[in-house]
Design goal:
CATH class of the largest domain: Alpha Beta
Distance between the termini: 48 Å
CATH topology of the largest domain: Rossmann fold
Radius of gyration: 21 Å
Number of strands: 16
Number of helices: 15
Mean pLDDT: 95
Largest sheet: 6 strands, mixed
Helix content: 25-40%
Strand content: 15-25%
CATH architecture of the largest domain: 3-Layer(aba) Sandwich
CATH superfamily of the largest domain: HUPs
Low-confidence stretches: none
Length: 401
């Protein structure tokens, strides 16, 4: 199943994939999946697998139609391209234990279920193959250290990958209950952009609350495009990241009071966070291309964690591809901050003053201030946003006690 796309930019690979089954097809696939489940041919998906299944099915990962086979996987890990040469930077795979893999026969159906047994999809098993975890870690994450969250997840998973086309029979619980009004599919966002008359759309990826520096970058981009697609990631993140519901409340408050309503669309990005830095910047760009965006903001250390990546690596990696291969235009911004002497948000490109005049807070500093109940400075973030974050952190803290 595919969708004819609308919009100013073609999906990656030229076709918007749709693996969500409806009507008679859904009934047929559901029957097959139930039979596979009865025969104990099923795989229980974790939150990352569920995010990937949803993203494949709705076309956000076009041209993927399922979990990667060995040829695509090895090409992506080693060369950042699919076997057909199309740029792709992150392996999208379904790991299982060797014991479970031995129970599955090539060519057979595998039911995809949630931890409570809820049937969500069907995998038509085409391949199962071994892979080298350390090699994948070094190539994708540029480190084999287990303290890197992406590497830790990789090392903890099964030793065999299952591959084949997937069909989404019923949306996972998280897709039905977490921000359903903002869970726009690529087909839907393309239709929304067209209705708004937007021809140039810039995407902004975030897993953090938006502060004044982000706001400055977004509004600078809005000066040269028609619309902003604020697209925060709501899949699995690190435990110390600000919870998605708190972040969403902060985004809505900010957009309501400080942005033109007819030039901004808020939607959630259901992907799980990989923390793969430069490679994830490419992945995020290609996904937003599928959503219909013509531009994406790439800041310093996009999708980074710790000190694993160079400050500008997420921007520099785009030079490894021809612009037409990527298709979506990266808008590369310098780190911005509030300067007391300038009296506004600036960057090292525009501000001549020393660092002691700059108000810069790290993510760790922000979390520590919020946990202590301290208001963030208005030069760093809007007071309304700071209050929402402080209340949200206090609520999370109380819930953990």
């Amino acid at each position: 199943m595919t969708n004819q796309y609308i919009g100013e930019i073609a999906p990656h690979g030229g076709t918007l994939i749709n693996r969500v089954v409806t009507g008679a097809e859904r009934e047929k696939m559901g029957t097959r999946a139930e039979q596979a489940k009865k025969e104990h041919h099923y795989r229980t998906l974790n939150s990352v697998n569920l995010s990937d299944l949803e993203m494949i099915a709705v076309g956000a990962m076009s041209p993927l139609t399922g979990f990667m086979g060995k040829q695509d996987y090895e090409n992506v890990v080693n060369n950042m391209r699919l076997a057909n040469g199309l740029p792709w930077s992150i392996p999208v795979t379904l790991p299982v234990s060797r014991e479970l893999a031995d129970n599955f026969d090539i060519g057979k159906d595998i039911a995809l279920v949630e931890s409570d047994g809820h049937l969500v999809g069907l995998l038509e098993l085409k391949e199962k193959f071994d892979y080298a975890k350390v090699h994948e870690a070094k190539m994708v994450y540029r480190t084999d250290e287990e303290k890197h969250p992406g590497v830790a997840r990789l090392y903890a998973q099964g030793d065999v990958y299952l591959a084949g086309d997937v069909w989404l029979i019923d949306m996972p619980h998280q897709a039905k209950t977490e921000f359903p009004e903002f869970r726009h599919t690529p087909q839907q966002t393309r239709e929304m952009f067209a209705r708004n008359g937007w021809r140039k759309i810039v995407a902004f990826q975030t897993r953090n609350p938006i502060h004044r520096a982000h706001e400055y970058i977004q509004k600078t981009a809005l000066e040269i495009v028609d619309g902003l697609f604020l697209h925060p990631l709501v899949g699995e993140t690190k435990g110390d990241d600000i919870p998605a519901d708190v972040r969403m409340e902060s985004y809505q408050s900010l957009l309501r009071d400080y942005y033109p309503a007819d030039r901004v669309l808020l939607g959630v990005f259901p992907a799980a966070m990989r923390y793969a830095g430069p490679r994830e910047a490419i992945f995020h760009a290609l996904c937003r291309k599928n959503y219909g965006c013509t531009h994406i903001i790439i800041g310093r250390d996009h999708a980074g964690v710790g000190t694993y990546y160079g400050t500008y690596d997420a921007q520099l990696i785009f030079s490894q591809f021809e612009p037409q291969e990527i298709g979506i235009t990266p808008m590369m911004f310098e780190h911005t901050f509030y300067c007391r002497k300038c009296g506004g948000i600036v960057s090292s490109k525009t501000c001549p003053h020393p660092k002691q005049d700059h108000i810069v807070l790290s993510g760790t500093q922000v979390r520590q201030m919020l946990e202590r109940g301290e208001m963030l400075p208005p030069e760093f973030t809007r007071p309304e946003v700071a209050q929402i974050l402080m209340d949200g952190i206090a609520k999370k803290k109380a819930g953990n006690q």
